[in-house]
From TrEMBL:
It comes from Mus musculus. InterPro entries: ARM-like (IPR011989), ARM-type_fold (IPR016024), Armadillo (IPR000225), TERB1 (IPR042359). It comes from the Eukaryota. ARM repeats lie at residues 101-145. This is Telomere repeat binding bouquet formation protein 1. GO terms for biological process: meiotic attachment of telomere to nuclear envelope.
Length: 339
């Protein structure tokens, strides 16, 4: 079994050499290039060392140049997808791709009116991979200006609160918006990045508008992730969110979802997500609990706690939130608690 490993490694190297030559040979054939890129992705997916070898033979740089120079959108998309998947599989490749030049190229694709929705999605995917668990990537995404571009896309990619996902055009836009939201999440978290958190605070008014106008899981889940990570362990960001009216909006959404949960089981699950987000806002910031008392949130949480569809972890999250709601509680919260 041990003797097979060198053989497989050599086969992998041979395959990648041939595929790179094939990619160069088919410069005038976009469909063939796309197929070769997909095959390269497949080879690198099967072997974590393949990405390193592919970089050593100049493969990563060739694909970067291909993504920049090709006039065919399908080649650009496949090239970016391959780059992202290789970086996702190998930290060394991720680090080697983290350059100001590549971040600038990706920003250019995102701001280019000629870029279609799928090309923008692939560009966002590469950004997400490069920034994930990577302080250097988080710094570059800020310094190059990508985070401002992502923030603008967050505001504008979806223009209708109705969100008719049965319409393919709307659905494709939603997928792009969701990817942008996920990328902003990794810009501020793991490791936590205070500077990026503060930049993302500018999106709170937009976030509030979406929560007030579109209480759908497809919107609430990613937005709550974004809020929770942007607020995490950052008192200034928490203050910004509360000042924008965000805590009031979360409370209103939570009350509505708990009410809906008596007829719709999924609303109870969604209410737990909102509860966790609300909890992130008041943890270590008990002064904000006065906002909760206006909406009788403790009573709402107690009612939600009794919901039979919730599992033990979800109920624990509710109990934790109740604890934070009643820490150093004011007179109004005490009255609610004793009701």
């Amino acid at each position: 079994m041990e003797s097979e490993k060198p053989k497989k490694t050599q086969e992998m190297k041979t395959d990648l050499k041939l595929l790179l030559e094939c990619l160069k040979y088919h410069m005038g054939n976009p469909l063939s290039q796309k197929e070769v890129l997909i095959t390269i992705h497949s080879v690198c997916k099967q072997n974590s060392d393949a990405g390193i070898y592919f970089r050593e033979i100049g493969g990563l740089m060739f694909i970067i140049n291909l993504a920049k120079s090709s006039e065919q959108s399908l080649v650009k998309e496949a090239a970016l997808y391959t780059l992202g998947s290789i970086a996702e599989e190998n930290v060394y490749c991720q680090q080697s791709l983290c350059t100001s030049e590549l971040f600038q190229d990706l920003t250019g694709l995102l701001t280019n009116d000629d870029s279609n929705t799928n090309l923008k999605r692939m560009s966002v995917y590469v950004l997400l991979v490069l920034v994930s668990n990577n302080r250097n990537g988080q710094t570059l995404v800020r310094e190059v200006g990508c985070i401002e571009v992502l923030s603008q896309m967050f505001r504008t990619v979806l223009s209708n609160y109705e969100l008719n996902l049965s319409d393919n055009s709307v659905f494709q836009s939603y997928l792009l918006w969701s990817s942008v939201c996920s990328t902003l999440c990794v810009c501020v978290n793991n490791p936590q990045n205070d500077e990026n958190q503060m930049l993302c605070c500018s999106l709170f008014p937009c976030v509030n508008e979406w929560l007030m106008n579109c209480m759908r899981p497809e919107v609430i889940r990613p937005i709550c992730s974004f809020i929770g990570l942007t607020l995490a362990n950052n008192t200034h960001a928490q203050n910004c969110f509360v000042s924008s009216g965000g805590l009031d909006v979360l409370c209103q959404v939570l009350v509505q979802l708990e009410s809906d949960s008596h007829n719709t089981l999924s609303s109870a699950k969604l209410a737990v997500i909102v509860t966790k987000t609300m909890d992130a806002c008041i943890t270590d910031n008990s002064a904000f609990t006065v906002v909760l008392s206006k909406y009788h949130i403790v009573s709402t949480l107690l009612a939600l706690l009794l919901h039979e569809s919730l599992d033990s972890r979800e109920k624990f999250s509710i109990i934790l939130a109740i604890g934070h709601c009643t820490e150093d509680c004011g007179e109004a919260t005490k009255q609610e608690w004793t009701l």
